[in-house]
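User: Could you go from structure to sequence for me? I need the amino acid at each position, not a summary. Structure tokens:
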């Protein structure tokens, strides 16, 4: 075996291992604590000085508050999509128990994006969400929820079946 063959084997194996690790990291397996799913329409409610709420569609979730995600998304949004803005970003702090609950990324009406904890969300009656990025994440609206595109289905493979069951149990399906 010559040196070129050895390099080819090393590079091929390295790429395969990196690809396998990337696929494992990006796949979101549902557990019993994940209450909502990608494509589900929810109401985000919170209290600052007065009560507020708005509706949106879930485009992703994390098992706990991800500060690196918040920082990365803020930088991307403010520099490349100036018409998008965060309406409400999670203000969890590492030492608070709320930081360790599920956190969801929502496209909300009026081209806003929210990153919030599960305790601030509830199921809302099905409706279309007016957001310019809907087509980036979903292929169509299916009466009660949005159908994730191929990338989201691969990353969150169990979510569509879970939200159909959840909506049926709550009388929306």
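Assistant: Here is the amino acid at each position, in order:
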């Amino acid at each position: 075996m010559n040196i070129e063959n050895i390099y080819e084997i090393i590079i091929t194996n390295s790429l395969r291992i990196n690809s396998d690790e990337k696929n494992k990291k990006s796949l979101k397996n549902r557990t019993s604590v994940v209450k909502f799913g990608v494509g589900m329409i929810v109401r985000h409610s919170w209290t600052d000085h007065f009560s507020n709420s708005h509706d949106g569609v879930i485009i992703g979730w994390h098992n706990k508050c991800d500060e690196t995600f918040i920082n990365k998304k803020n930088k991307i949004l403010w520099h490349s999509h100036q018409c998008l803005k965060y309406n409400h970003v999670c203000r969890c702090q590492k030492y608070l128990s709320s930081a360790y609950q599920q956190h969801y990324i929502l496209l909300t009406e009026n081209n806003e994006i929210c990153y919030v904890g599960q305790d601030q969300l509830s199921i809302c009656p099905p409706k279309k969400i007016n957001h310019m990025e809907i087509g980036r994440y979903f292929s169509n609206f299916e009466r009660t929820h949005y159908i994730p595109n191929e990338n989201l289905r691969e990353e969150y493979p169990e979510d569509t079946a879970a939200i159909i069951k959840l909506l049926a149990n709550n009388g929306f399906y």
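One structural detail worth keeping in mind: The chain has five helices and eight strands.
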